[in-house]
Amino acid sequence: MTLLEIKDGQYVLDGQPFRILSGAIHYFRVVPEYWKDRLQKLKACGFNTVETYIPWNFHEPKEGEFVFDGMADVASFIQLAHEMGLYVIVRPSPYICAEWEFGGLPAWLLQNSDMGLRCYDPAYLAKVDRYYDVLIPKLVPLLSTNGGPILAVQVENEYGSFGNDTSYLEYLRDGLVARGVDVLLFTSDGPTDEMLIGGTIDGVHATVNFGSRVAESFAKFREHREHDPLMVMEYWNGWFDHWMEPHHVREASDVGQVLDDMLKAGSSINMYMFHGGTNFGFYNGANHPEKYEPTVTSYDYDAMLTEWGDLTSKYEAVREVFEKHGIKPGCSLPDPISKCTYGQVTLSECSPLFDELDTLSTPVKQAYIQPMEKFGQSYGFILYSTWVKGPRKGQKLYIQDVRDRAQVFLDGKLLGVVERWNPQPLDISVSKEGARLDILVENMGRVNYGPFLRDPKGIMEGVRVDNQFQYGWTIRTLPLEPASLSELSFTEGGEQVQGPAFYRGYVDVERIGDTFLRVDGWKKGVAWVNGFNLGRYWEAGPQQALYIPGPLLHKGRNEIILFELHGTPEEAIITLVDQPDLGSTALLDERHLNFVVEDESV
């Protein structure tokens, strides 16, 4: 039996002082075929531990239906780390943040508008208990006390940034213990009074998250926890990106200097992120500090490894600091993963969205508008349709509280776009015969952090022409799951479609390697390769290419589908290249690296 304990203010493992040198790798952001490559690079740098969140919505995407295979096979990821000689820290807290959709909470929780989130609400805790009754038994055999690699388990994540319900934290702690978790339990919070007061509980080890100002952050932590070992559970060595912003970068020398300061202070560390990976599918989150800011598909994070797993200058900077402190590589590096250019692919087959509505959905008719969660939908798009009576001239169309981006069509022609972050009304005129109004709303990712965490999608309040609400709607859910895409009817060639449509083409592959999908000239949409949802693209940037891991391809013919919202370029061509493009860059400012002012924390 191996047990990580706290004695005399330090970590002790099997009776010997132990420093945790951990790096974050999220198994759910990396295809399983590459788990070993990423873990080997972690160990080769000198780390002895890997840390991962466990996202509830990834494992229970539909209520009562659990998924633990493929990319969701968390037990296999942990066992692989064990076989490679690494310890593991797991963070299965119901909420994870992680710039992940809804912070890991399943969207179906929002069907109940009265349910409290992340608090001692029996209705919410009953859902957590059912999930933990399935998840935790998969982790218990992998605890270090049972011969496995898991040294520590998180109770909740940065809870002090959200609430102060101590009874809720105690309930989660007691639930873990009752289910057999007998390793070190911990919380993690930012280095402010408010966060450390709200997020910690007596008898549970506290850790701290920050990216700079080492002495200042540790001093604040010590005001609250005099005898706990110093542990930076999240050392933010990079940052994530939002659409319509530049790609965030941080100097490698600065990352190395801050790490050196942490190690000199005697701290253990978890590098967040060691390897970021990708927000495949519709799993990107969003932030809402002052306005809604959706996160891009890439979770490159400007980390020690790129999104596609290559070593960066930060890897070398950390390796140098480790050597300075006598920390040696644990193994050799793996062979490089090949990258391939497959050239241009013409998406010559087309399937307009409005021609395929009956294939993709079943209409629901009701008087008033509701968000997608009320129809059992979590991700994708939702279509609201009605008949507007005329005549109307020179009026304004208002979508009251849209989440997140709506394309408005009047008799099949685009009237305009209404965005959550720019909710301007549209001019509308209707003849005396009336007109059909279609509103296609895209869920661009639920808020994953802060007070606006409750973030249902679609249209919240209703649609008005001037001050008159419109009633009598036909509503179609469009989650765009792979099974429904396989039922689409495509037509070869034909005239260009200006509205939303699916485009399909094929690429023949002889040599398999990683590649990058460029969509130059396309506007905004979603891409699939062989039925796998690669995520969103958008000309707004900064991301200009989608990463395709080689294991998603196979020798022979491979299918590529784009759901383009705004019509094709002159030629419906995409390009598969061996080099990515993360767009314009900008150095991180201090606001991103520490909780400088509590009410401005990100």
From TrEMBL:
Keyword Aminoacyl-tRNA synthetase (UniProt): no
InterPro entries xrefs: B-gal_1-like, BetaGal1-like_ABD1, BetaGal_gal-bd, Galactose-bd-like_sf, GH, Gly_Hdrlase_35_cat, Glyco_hydro_35_CS, Glycoside_Hdrlase_35
Listed Pfam families: BetaGal_ABD_1 (PF21317), BetaGal_gal-bd (PF21467), Glyco_hydro_35 (PF01301)
Record GO biological process: carbohydrate metabolic process
Catalytic activity annotation: Hydrolysis of terminal non-reducing beta-D-galactose residues in beta-D-galactosides
GO MF annotation list: beta-galactosidase activity
Enzyme class: hydrolase
Residue ranges occupied by any Glycoside hydrolase 35 catalytic domain in the UniProt entry: 12-323
Beta-galactosidase 1-like first all-beta domain segment(s): 372-478
UniProt-listed Enzyme Commission number(s): 3.2.1.23
Keyword annotations: Glycoprotein, Glycosidase, Hydrolase, Signal
Domain Beta-galactosidase galactose-binding: 500-558
Active site: E158, E234
Family: Belongs to the glycosyl hydrolase 35 family.
The name this protein goes by in its record: Beta-galactosidase
Organism (species): Paenibacillus azoreducens
Upper lineage: Bacteria, Bacillati, Bacillota, Bacilli, Bacillales
